[in-house]
Amino acid sequence: MLNKIAFKALRQKWRDYSVLLIGTTIAVAIFYMFTNIAMNEELLRSLSTMTQKMIVFVFVLGQILLGVITFVYLNFANSFLVRLRQKDYGLLSMLGATKHQIGSLLLRETLLLGLISSILGVFVGMGITKLSGQALMQSIGIKLSHWSVGTPKVVLVTIGFFLLIFLFNGLYNRWRLMRLDTLTLLQADHVVSAKKVNPKRQLILGLLGIILLGTSYAIMPKVVQWQMIGLTVDLILNVTGTYLFVGQTLGLVTYWIGKSEFGQKGLRNFINGQLRFRLDEYKRILTMIAVLFGLALGAISVGQGYYVSLPKQAVENDALTLATKNPKTDFADLKDVTYQAQLDYVVKDQTVYFNKDSVKKAQVPTLVYQQNGQPDAKPKQTTVDVNHPEDAYTLSTLANYVTGVPFGSDVQLVNQLPAGKQEIIKLVKVKDLQANESVLKKMAANEKAYMSNPDEMIPGAYGNLITLKTIFGGLEFMSIFLGIAFLIMLASTLMFKTLSNVSLDRRRYEILAMIGTTPQQLRLTAFKDVGILFFIPMLIGLMDATMGMQIFKPIMPDPYSGFSLGLMLVLGIYGGYYILTSLIYQRLVLKK
Amino acid sequence: MVQPILLAKNIKKTYQSGAHVAQPVLNDLSLTVENGEFLAIMGPSGSGKSTLLNILSTLMQPTSGSVTINGQDILAMNDKDMAKFRGQDMGFIFQNYNLIESLTVAENIALPLNLQKKAPKLTQERVQVVSELLNIKELRHKYPAELSGGQQQRVGAARALVHEPGLIFGDEPTGALDSENAREMMQYLTKINQEKLISILMVTHDPFSASFASRILFLNDGEIAGELVRGAQSRESFYQQILQQLGNFEE
Ligand SMILES: Nc1ncnc2c1ncn2[C@@H]1O[C@H](COP(=O)(O)OP(=O)(O)OP(=O)(O)O)[C@@H](O)[C@H]1O
Ligand SMILES: [Mg+2]
User: Fold this and answer.
1) N or C: which terminus of chain A has fewer CB atoms within 10 Å of its end residue's CB?
2) Domain ABC transporter spans what residues (chain B) (predicted)?
3) What is the ipTM, given to two decimal places?
């Protein structure tokens, strides 16, 4: 019987439930995607050869963080569910249903929702994993060989995790419901009283908030010097500062606006009052969202920043763009060729012989590493000195390449090439590596037939770029992936927090309408009302990320190079959520 | 003759409820509110009082009929003009919860003026004046949740008249009050009516509250079933007359 009621409830309030269902499904899907990667050790290992341990650590940490957010998020989603049902429960209780019956009804509804959204979420998660994997890999231009849509283990872990959370939430909801009496249930739109504040205390805490937040920004450029301790201290300062800023400083601002003439125009005071009223309840979630917003934007920007610096690094690490053994290669397709040449050579006993005169005449560009016995000195871009061929990086890479034996080949410059099979290698250098990438890609593909060791990289900046991309591309991929996953979770959390309070707001908007607010003004006010809730954490998060990039200055060539892309991505998703939320909010709050 | 402030003609209202044909809640009802009049509409529960008031106050559309306020045909207006009209020419007092609990008393009262984009100085002055009139000056910085029912109702009244509308609507304005508070509230409304010359249209099922009005219409089955005019008699004897009339209806 109760099962039937639970199921009927889902059908009746379908529109409200669908918001809830979509939200929880998204949470499951994101969690699924993440778990899928975190449990794919082969993939993680292939992403980066150098930082295996590090990346596993990052993912474990990420998984914990995501678990916590998911938990908080589902709590909000569940209180939305309770709000939806509270009045009905009150009625049932009045009609004689026992607390116990109603409690188990709520538990069943919660579990039913959990089950449906877990199953849907896993499917959606698989879908997104497939699509986003393809899209991201294509845009980065790399191939992740161990990328998979999922294993039964991942599915089980995800569904298990969510059913557990839903069970917990259901039990908690039931416990809370049991404590309320029938009257409270019936008056679901309970009246909240404003919290009394001590102005002096608020002023001090408000200022402290600004100071802490400011300090956390000020020390960011130096944080890396102090390592883990520096990072931890900065994070604590930042989080505490944000918390005080949201709870106290903004409280002061709303207080001043309420007093000022600015607040007297139109519905400003209404919006201000809404914020003032909500701050106490929202300060925790807004702080969490501000910090995570900053982290998400930071993660994407750093990943992207590394990635955009790759062509530069690739060019810095080689004097040539490409060397090819394919005699049919035509450099005419390339744009802005700054150098090209062709050398004859003979290989004998792993030694590669070039003609000294032709090398001299060709003025082969090279990097020279060993200068004045300082092996670590920055390489110098120059041309091959025929008297010191052993110093010329270009010649040794060419030798390694044509013999197919890395590190073992020797180079000799001779006046007369020894007897043997005489081959040619063509060299080219272009001004802009990225502009020529697609043509170079084709040349590299045609080169395969001529390579003595097909696993080896083609010499030159283009080859470097491909190597760097396979190393860092995976990292970038992960950072974007992580950033987006977190962003979606936090935006959904804010969405449900806002929507679960709708019943309180509805009456206020009704009164506004009654006393002569035009429909258009009402819509605009609702937009602003929700907008402020989204704007506050975004603003702080933006500052966090902008300042936080300073942390990477010592270890990245240009930390801000990926910032604009990160910003676009983050603002796009976050903005989308804002619009969605305010549209739903309007639908729920404004009567037709 | 001065034109009436409100003129309703042949109002009909039928709620659309699914497939079955519903009885009309209001059936061909006409009424007039003269300028400066304090009119009460009485009727048993379900007789359509709230429906009538919502239609007259532009919050709801009738199925047919016409409503003219201050010479303007309000049914011909679009949503926006209607809202503006409500904001400028009307005030509302409702049974309960008519304050916005996230705003202080002063901010609640100021809302209609804020909406009309009046100068902040003037707004403050007006809030001051009506707060004094309704004896809620000390409550200015409190939130609605900190007030008693009677105090909340007075704040609601202050907000209804802060912009000096021509007509105030009340739906059971004393419904949530005990008799002492109800008496106080009705005395304030009488004061507004007499001193500010604001017309009042109020629906109630409470004979005591109705006895403060200058005229009473009785609503039954969607039609006007009777009328009482106070004239020169005292409120007390008018009250007796109402009770008698109600008794007659019951028979
Ligand atoms: N939105 C609605 N949809 C359908 N029927 C409605 C609606 N609102 C009211 N009614 C019906 O219209 C009739 C009149 O309702 P109304 O609220 O106007 O009565 P009332 O005189 O104000 O009663 P009360 O004294 O109980 O407040 C009732 O029979 C009611 O059931
Ligand atoms: Mg009513």
Assistant:
1) C
2) 6-246
3) 0.84
